[in-house]
From TrEMBL:
CDD domains: LuxR_C_like, REC_NarL-like
Domain Response regulatory as annotated: residue spans: 5-121
UniProt GO BP: phosphorelay signal transduction system; regulation of DNA-templated transcription
Molecular function terms, GO-annotated: DNA binding
SUPFAM superfamilies recorded: C-terminal effector domain of the bipartite response regulators, CheY-like
Keywords for the protein's UniProt record, in alphabetical order: DNA-binding, Phosphoprotein, Transcription, Transcription regulation
Record organism: Flavobacterium johnsoniae (strain ATCC 17061 / DSM 2064 / JCM 8514 / BCRC 14874 / CCUG 350202 / NBRC 14942 / NCIMB 11054 / UW101)
Domain HTH luxR-type: 150-215
4-aspartylphosphate: residues carrying this PTM: 56
Name listed for the protein in its UniProt record: Two component transcriptional regulator, LuxR family
Pfam families given in the database record: GerE, Response_reg
Lineage of origin: Bacteria, Pseudomonadati, Bacteroidota, Flavobacteriia, Flavobacteriales
Amino acid sequence: MTKIKIHLADDHQVLIDGLTNLLQTVSNFEIVGSSLNGVTVYDDVIQDQADILVLDISMPQKDGIEVLKEFNQKGLPCKVIILSSYDDLKIIKEVMKLGAKGYLTKKCAGENMIEAIEAVYEGQEYFSDAVREKIFSMFSQNNPKLNKNVYIENPILSPREIEIVTLICLEYSGKEISEKLFISVNTVETHRKNIMKKLNIKNTIGLVKYALKNNLINE
């Protein structure tokens, strides 16, 4: 069984210890190291040969954003999930542009961290529910066609897929969706194909009919 090698970077040892205890309950996770300040993160990750870095924004000497900038200059050595006390959209957008693949707030770390690591390791982007809803509401709040209750439970589609369907029906392009949700165009296209397959429909008209029928958008 292939182990997912994880490095934890946070300035609070108690948080590192808590995450370590949580992640060690997963058989294919291996905690290979940790960092208490941003200065050593790059070298630590290289030495540990980590697959995933869980990185705090507020790090001493060099913060998480500066660490990501260093990664970009030297070459991304692993996939990065941001774990932060902040859910400010400006920060989220900046770190995603710098290559982070996931963003969790510390409030929901316990319930989402395992899922986030598995998703990011498999090449997906991952946002906690609160962060995703904030991103979505940023550009949808003034759109009269959007049902503000878009996060209703759906027996077929995931919350992310519901967002994608809604935006396609509101005539956003794949590029626009990728920019709005901070995910890649390829990820948008993968979601679109999966949605079509799940719903057994062949075109955008079918998506619009589904969205109207399920109250995702208003007529």
